[in-house]
Amino acid sequence: MEYSVFDAHCDTLCCVRDDGKAIEKNDCQLDLSRMGKYKSYTQVFGCYINPIYKEHALERCLDLIGAFYGSGLDKHGMILSMEGGEPIYDLAALENFYRLGVRIIALTWNFSNHIAAGVHEPDKSKGLTTFGARVVGEMNRLGILADASHLNDKSFYDIAALTRLPFIATHSNSRAVCAHPRNLTDEQFNVICQSGGCVGINLYPPFLNESKNADLDDIIRHIEHFMSLGGENHIGIGADFDGVSYLPDGFAGCEDLYKIFDRLLGMNYSEEQIEKISHKNFERVIGGVL
Ligand SMILES: [Zn+2]
Fold this sequence. Notes:
Layout: E1 4-10, H1 12-19, H2 32-35, E2 40-48, H3 57-70, E3 79-83, H4 91-99, E4 102-106, H5 130-142, E5 145-146, H6 153-162, H7 186-194, E6 199-201, H8 205-208, H9 216-228, E7 235-237, H10 258-266, H11 271-287
Helix pairs in contact: 1-3, 4-5
């Protein structure tokens, strides 16, 4: 079986922008030559707004969007997302980001901002702000998906109550399998399923296994758990390539994703089920806003 892939999150634009890496071929975790070995490969390229940029968040975001277009990634059918809402200083800015091609926004990274609270927020009562509620309303109107991956639990439920679009978590795993706040509870996974959304399995070992060392078995345990919750139409890949310092044993980058699908095939998953997980579930959800 030749696989098609849809990966909902990577940070490779930072390598292109900051380290001068070529997207065609590089020593990062992802490049076009390795993606080209698959039947098809659609990648969501995140514009990660590192908190160090502070009042320069907007310039930073535009630099990363520039790296996306400068590398010709739009011509390869790739998709843009934003990770951290600091560049959204008003609603008109949001419409400009839509025009520039941004279709997914994680409103916070791990910390809190003027929009919502992230997973490292010590005050559990903090969630979506008043301005944040207006941002979500405008995202509904424009057709930009909200990404739950770095939100704290309160922000998760605040946004779930407001969004009329499918709610997604581009790169998060199951908290029942690995108790990390970046992962989703079973109840949160069900909320995402009911919205018609999708969750991308993240390959960062600390999100896969509490020992911080992980291998293919751990990746499969998260998929199997979401499957046991009725998630067949709501599981995808969000590997977090180039956003993570190391990967599970046996994984060096996008060239190794096929190992997940080969294993599922060996476990008697049908080709149709594997295609849903490898690309069709996220294609369905993102296709709705393209
Ligand atoms: Zn992330």
